[in-house]
# Entry
Amino acid sequence: MDGEHSALSGVERERERLPPIYTSSPPVLGRGPKQPFPSLGTFISTLSQRRDAGGRGFAIGIGGPLTGPLTGPLGIRHTVRELPPICSDVRQKQRLSIDTLPQEVKAPFPCDPVIPLRTKTTKEFQEDVERAAQSGDWREVREFYLTTFDSFVEINAAFKREANGLFNTIEDSGVNGKFVSAVYDSLLSTPQDIQKLVLKGIINSLLREWKGPRTKDDLRAYFVLIQNPQYSSTSTYVIFAHLLRQIAALSEADHHFLVHWLKRLSARRFRQLVERLLQFISTRLFPAEPDELPPSAKCSWWIPSATKVLSLFNAASSVSSPPIMPFTDFYNITLEHIDFMEDYRTWQNYGNSNRFSFCQFPFILSTVVKKAIIQKDSEQQMISQARLSLVSKVSRRQRVDMNLLFLNIKVRRAQLLSDSLDELMRKRCDLKKKLRVTFVGEAGLDMGGLTKEWFLLLVRQIFHTDYGMFSFMKDSRCHWFSSWKSDNYSEFQMVGTLMGLAVYNSIALDIHFPLYCYRKLLTPPTVPSDPNAFVGTATATLDDLQQVMPDLAHGLAELLSYEGNVEEDFYLTFQVFQEEMGVVKSYNLKPAGDKIPVTKQNRKEYVQLYIDFLLNKSIYKQFAAFYHGFHSVCASDALMLLRPEEVEMLVCGSPELDMSALQKAAQYEGYSKMDATVRFFWDVVLAFPLELQKKLLHFATGSDRVPVGGMADLNFKICKIDVPADWLPVSHTCFNQICLPPYRTRKELKHKLTIAISNAEGFGLE
# Structure
């Protein structure tokens, strides 16, 4: 508590009345007028009920290591605890039950205060504010705000729907949300003295409520206080930080309640609070003015507290269906400018201990940061390997060949697939090196174009339906693994390796796997040390099957909801049939499945086993080879930071197009950005519907997606070709170039460009 009170000294000048501040020891439990205490038996009984209701054992203080004893009422020595470091697993070890506490700590404490009855309604309050604004007499409104925010008890009195109701469920916070919104929506339009009174009241409340275990009424007060719009101003950040610290220090059970209460906020209010927390973190990291905030050294707990509270909002969004906010809206772009590799190394060394790192909360890190971490981590591994090779060469007095710093792939165009497979298998120890591709018999140095062409040609062949490795699902417009059996699945391993190389070399691949594939790729996110351990087997649901085989998923959903006689009407058993290379084969979903009929009682089991068979068991060996191929390149602890959606973005790029950003980053050869043809081009492209914009990007680059780093990473170039104006545009996808004849009118350019991008086949390679 010493650090707590000294940190609050910055706001002492702003408040007129505060309880005494203890600078050398925490406040004594039971301070103030003595109250009657229950008997020890009654106390233990009450405590047990609270423990059962709240899901946590009794603890004096707010978590953290036990510190110095203090004399409390009746001369009993109490042990008070300070605020613990903010981390994700420390409180699990520190929750105490009444049976594990020392004898001197098992002392009674006063009963919960009775919440006074407040009867003001939302409508009455709004009428008071409207009347005050018109008359200039704010006394009644001032008294309301002064009373309401004076303590946690008063906050509950004002906003709890029933003053002394329990509301001890995650489904209902018991808070009158409409009234809270009305009070906060009016607050910023009140006179400055009222706004200052509210802040002073919050300071008093936070100091007064610092001691003692949390009750559900305390949680309600925190739930109300976190919504205060005054925290948008940096002048209130000291107060906001202390509120966040107390919320972050709550037990896991209390956090569980808050998560479910938060998800019931309106989407607009929820987003405001998330953006406020993100702004708080950004401003603390990079304040606009050096003296705007207290020195970072004295406020090192600000960012951990805010990040922990932000994680509650992220959890609330994630458990909602659909999510309240896209996961990308929790990214803090400011973190792209910190030393994230140092943060990553801290996380690697200390994990989820009391040493804070942003990597403990990966939802806040953008895909740009995560990609950079993976690449730098792999580069460091590559440098280590290269150093060993150099040392070995030098020690044997051999000539050093700089080619050993690269993964050199030499292939013949006519034997592209087999040569690529042989090269990748033969040089699997060099996969983490920078890729350089050479086509046999062709002159030229690989400056990126040949590498991209190699990827595009390989993907085109591998995913062709005639090749048989992957099936294209017309209904879902995605590829899935063929279930044919083989003695050698090395080609699937090559596809995984290819995907890993694409991530490492910043190449966006034009492949279409369902999201469930990327979830399997992260199961587990790091390769097990046991070579026989199962990999790539993720729990599958009907929603996952919907991504791959929507018609079958719909049929199984109808089976689950069927009201008639399932056994007689469907006539199914726990045996399924699958076509493999033109031959229909049968498989039992469980032992003797062909003799077990599907009934109303066991249909859920049938559906679950069938889904697991289709998405896991029937393709296990194929996917396991694919998994190991990918991780042979991207083996990094950083994969634990990724969501399946983010892995997809790393492999395929982002589906979010911003043609204005592409225009700003575009380069020109033979044209300038002020030439008429170029101006016509951008007028047409910016006016295209999204579908045509995607076709243009695919025509020029070989993919309709954007690299994780944004349009600037495409190195998109518009070139001039001296041909008649009746020619169509030409693209060089290996170099992300589009070549335009000197069209004379906007209409002519639009007509020719639309024809070109709408009728291009394959990858438009030239």
Remarks:
- The first strand starts at residue 66 and ends at 71.
- The CA atoms of residues 347 and 359 lie 6 Å apart.
- Residues 367-395 form the longest helix (29 residues).
- Confidence is low (pLDDT under 50) at residues 1-110, 762-766.
